[in-house]
Amino acid sequence: MLSTNTITTIKSTVPVLEVHGTEITKRFYNMLFKNHPALLNIFNHANQKQGRQQEALANAVYAAAKHIDQLEAILPVVKQVAHKHRSLGVKPEHYPIVGEYLLKAIKDVLKDDATDEILQAWEEAYGVIANVFIEVENEMYEEAAKQPGGWDEERNFVVDRKEQESEVITSFYLKPVDGKPIASFKSGQYISVKLEIPDDEFTHIRQYSLSDAPDKSYYRISVKKEKNPSKPDGIVSNYLHDHVNIGDTLSITAPAGDFYLEDESTPIVLLSGGVGITPMLSMLKSSVLQDRKTTFIHASLNGSVHAFQEEVSSLNHPSLEYFVCYESPTQEDHNNRIFHKEGFVDREWLSETLSLEPNTHYYFCGPLQFMKAVKEALIKLGVEENQMHYEFFGPAVALQQSME
């Protein structure tokens, strides 16, 4: 337990972290990778280059300081990050390294304002928070390994099938090389794929949502190809598209993630934008098997990049309603009339389309702007925060904060 003096000291740094948090985390990562470059085999290089990881860590440090006297308040965030850490292979021995350079970064950025009292308080607080992460992650490692069909760390899978779903999305069907059973998962979860790309010094690890229903003999991931191959966040996805073929082997970790379809009987609404359809498709298939009242809304640029249209349409079930929104439909789209709205998903259309039953839960995933629009619309329609569930591709940001 933290002393009262430590808690008071940490809370006194909240206003400073609000202003200098991202500067501190940028300095932290610079020093960390300079002194421990091997950690670049774990961290997402794209998120580093684009500043998303630094921002996410700054938000986490700020939240920890703000709630240092009630750490149970940040437990959901701890579990979310712990899922990602387990899938990446973060281990207890990494935490002292991170703590050392986080304290050095605080000292470097705040200079004389980082008094010995503040640094000592943060060292003590970091130790407590790190132990929480280590404990939660150890449980997750054990659970992943001991579950039926589970395994520890990485396992080799062969690409059994590779299918193009749209102009930009391709699915990879993965079967275990050893031929043994594979772990089940909760619809909405992801796996991590580890790649060694020629001429790259470090390995790359990326998370991809599982896009088919659980309890198959394979895992399916559906990957979007970026138009600009030089974009940092397109390096791995484009490599999968262009260089990974049937018969090739991929190293993956067991399914993880805290964004998944709750096992209940209440009605659900699934909303996806672009490649955000991947976790939603798994949820959709599970909900149909459960005979659960489901409304599925998918937004896409147009029909040429709309993946899984036929697959979703084939799920003909009386408990399912399916709606499509195209931002810029082509002439062929107009001729086929498979979409229900032109433009963007907005409050007015959702009000007309959804029944808005009080016990309904809403799951959404897609580009940040799409999620901001959806959440803002749902709030205005009277949906409570505890009825909304959403997933970020990449480090989580404060969605409500980004709406302001």
Automatic annotation (TrEMBL):
Name the InterPro entries for this protein.
Cbr1-like_FAD-bd_dom, FAD-bd_FR_type, Flavoprot_Pyr_Nucl_cyt_Rdtase, FNR_nucleotide-bd, Globin, Globin-like_sf, Globin/Proto, Hmp
Question: What's the top EC group for this one?
Answer: oxidoreductase
What is catalysed by this protein?
A: 2 nitric oxide + NADH + 2 O2 = 2 nitrate + NAD(+) + H(+); 2 nitric oxide + NADPH + 2 O2 = 2 nitrate + NADP(+) + H(+)
The UniProt entry's GO biological process terms, in alphabetical order, are: cellular response to nitrosative stress; nitric oxide catabolic process; response to toxic substance
For this chain's record, the cofactor binding note is: Binds 1 FAD per subunit.
Residue ranges annotated for the Globin domain, each copy included: 1-138
Q: Which domain of life is it from?
A: Bacteria
FAD-binding FR-type domain segment(s): 152-262
Annotated catalytic residues: Y95 (charge relay system), E137 (charge relay system)
Q: Where is this site: Involved in heme-bound ligand stabilization and O-O bond activation?
A: Y29
List positions binding heme b: H85
Q: Give the required cofactors.
A: FAD; heme b
Q: Region Reductase: start and end of each range? A: 149-404
Q: What's this protein's function?
A: Is involved in NO detoxification in an aerobic process, termed nitric oxide dioxygenase (NOD) reaction that utilizes O(2) and NAD(P)H to convert NO to nitrate, which protects the bacterium from various noxious nitrogen compounds. Therefore, plays a central role in the inducible response to nitrosative stress.
Which family does the entry's similarity section mention?
Answer: In the C-terminal section; belongs to the flavoprotein pyridine nucleotide cytochrome reductase family.
Comment text on domains: Consists of two distinct domains; an N-terminal heme-containing oxygen-binding domain and a C-terminal reductase domain with binding sites for FAD and NAD(P)H.
Q: What protein is this chain from? A: Flavohemoprotein
- Source organism: Guptibacillus hwajinpoensis
